Amino acid sequence: MQALRRPVERHPLPLMKIAIHWFRCDLRLSDNTALRAAVTASEVVVPIFIFDPKILKAPEISAPQVAFMIECLRSLEKNIEAAGGRLIFRHGPVLQEMRAVLQETGAHALYFNRDYEPYARERDEAVEKLALSLGIEVHTHKDSVIHEAQEVLKADGGSYGVFTPYSRAWRTLAKPSVVPAVQFSRPARWKDPAGLALPSAKELGFACGISLPPAGERAARDRLRKFAAIDLLTYAKGRDFPARDATSRLSPHLRLGTLSPRTVVATAEKVGGEHLATKASIDVFVNELIWRDFYRQILWHHPHVSTACFRPQYDRLQWENNEKLFAAWCEGRTGYPLIDAGMRQLNTTGWMHNRVRMVVATFLTKDLRISWQWGERYFMQKLIDADLASNNGGWQWSAGTGTDAQPWFRIFNPSSQAQKFDPEGHYIRQFVPEADTFTYTAPIVDHARQRIKTLAFYRGL
User: Fold this and answer.
1) Among residues 319, 322, 347, 413, which one is catalytic?
2) How far apart are the first and last CA of the chain?
3) Contact criterion met (CB below 8 Å) for 246 and 267
4) Is residue 201 part of a domain?
5) Does 424 participate in catalysis according to the annotation?
6) Are residues 110 and 31 in the same domain?
7) Considering 351, 395, 397, 408, which one is annotated as catalytic?
8) Which is the catalytic residue, given 300, 372, 374, 397?
9) Residue 319 designated active-site
10) Does the residue 127 lie in any domain?
11) Shortest CA distance to 131 belongs to which of 120, 122, 139?
């Protein structure tokens, strides 16, 4: 898809306070900190979204997530129009497109919410430097986390590498407040900068191949409301059983920002205040949001984890990386019903239950002794909620190379996990209907033997 070319010219209303809000993973109008600040401080706010070729061409990009993002943007575009504005879409190198928008609008300020991934940090620093060189103010805000990396530190100022003490410190800090939704102001003489029509995923070069869940801010809030009214009340007991579908399913919305973590925590705490008997479930659910912040601060303080092990000594592991076994794992034909059900759920829906994610990841790394990086990339390519920090953290936790206080010697037995968390086989039969028949494939490895070999594999470092 070719980037739109246009003449660069200053906007004819230079005396107005004009701000750009740069949408990225914050695709909503309510409880959006940078957007709210921009609208409060400016007479005109121009919302923009730039399709970044570097991200779209990355080998780990998820086609389902791109398709879901397009639907979220479609919803956002309508919401902005209803609120009196217009969302401007651009496609091309970010610095080039940002320079053009800043100059065409005559903006005095640029607002955006902070991102914590290594590429995003590098990109955002370059954009900020560009804007400042043009005499334009830059205002960045915390939005996609409850507490940023620099806010949760040890007494000596160092960062946490283990979750439990981090979570204790996290819970002692005051939580940021939810901010109101916005309306846009567009004076009669205002002329929007040039923009593209919202492209389809296919036009961007992606074939999704699955049915997507409802997208956009309203869908996210509806999902949160439904979860808070039913499954949140028993979350501590129900979350580990994949057949019950008792988890929040909010991860795709949190990833693309159609819902803020502040809104989620505020909703959970409100439920806890109204139903005192649910405290255990509320605490367990909030813990999942703490894990989300934890992995982001790991990525911030230790950016090497995006390409290597959190614990460097594990970079010396000599993985077997058998391509035939990897293909069987990817396709859900390992002969272990819970593993196969999880992988088929991923391939056909773009999502996998969290308990099952841990089991299939441990199976790949510790039964098949295939690098966690192979599995990490496959998940990133398939998940609607694909997220570098959480996905990387979860894979390294499962592989024993990451932040877990009990690293390599935890090896899940896929058969006993199935008996414990899918005792009646409802989840397995949904995705592996042949599991109880003679046509089902034999196990590709013997778990008991592989466990013994894997313990030696890790001890050999």
Assistant:
1) 319
2) 48
3) no
4) no
5) no
6) yes
7) 395
8) 372
9) yes
10) yes
11) 139
Structural domain boundaries enclosing 450: 312-459
| Residue 329 annotated to the active site | no
Query: One of 170, 291, 351, 374 is an active-site residue; which one?
Result: 291
For residue 231, give both structure tokens: 């499954």
Provide the domain count of the chain: 3
Could you confirm whether 32 is annotated as catalytic?
A: no
Please check whether residue 208 lies inside any domain of the structure: no
In a domain, 202, yes or no: no
Phi and psi angles of residue 110, each rounded to the nearest 5 degrees, phi first:
-120, 130
- Annotated catalytic, 408? no
State the CATH number of the domain containing residue 438.
Answer: 1.10.579.10
Q: Is 395 a catalytic residue?
A: yes
Q: What are phi and psi of 204, to 5 degrees?
A: -85, -5
pLDDT per residue, tens digit, the chain (461 aa), is 444 444 444 444 457 899 999 999 999 999 999 999 999 999 999 999 999 999 999 999 999 999 999 999 999 999 999 999 999 999 999 999 999 999 999 999 999 999 999 999 999 999 999 999 999 999 999 999 999 999 999 999 999 999 999 999 999 999 999 999 999 998 888 889 999 999 999 999 999 999 999 999 999 999 999 999 999 999 999 999 999 989 999 999 999 999 999 999 999 999 999 998 899 999 999 999 999 999 999 999 999 999 999 999 999 999 999 999 999 999 999 999 999 999 999 999 999 999 999 999 999 999 999 999 999 999 999 999 999 999 999 999 999 999 976 667 889 999 999 999 999 999 999 999 999 999 999 999 999 999 999 999 999 87
Q: Tell whether 154 and 276 lie within a shared domain.
A: yes
- Contact predicate 298/403, CB 8 Å: yes
CA atoms within 13 A on the CB side of 439: 3
Residues 102 and 171 in one domain: no
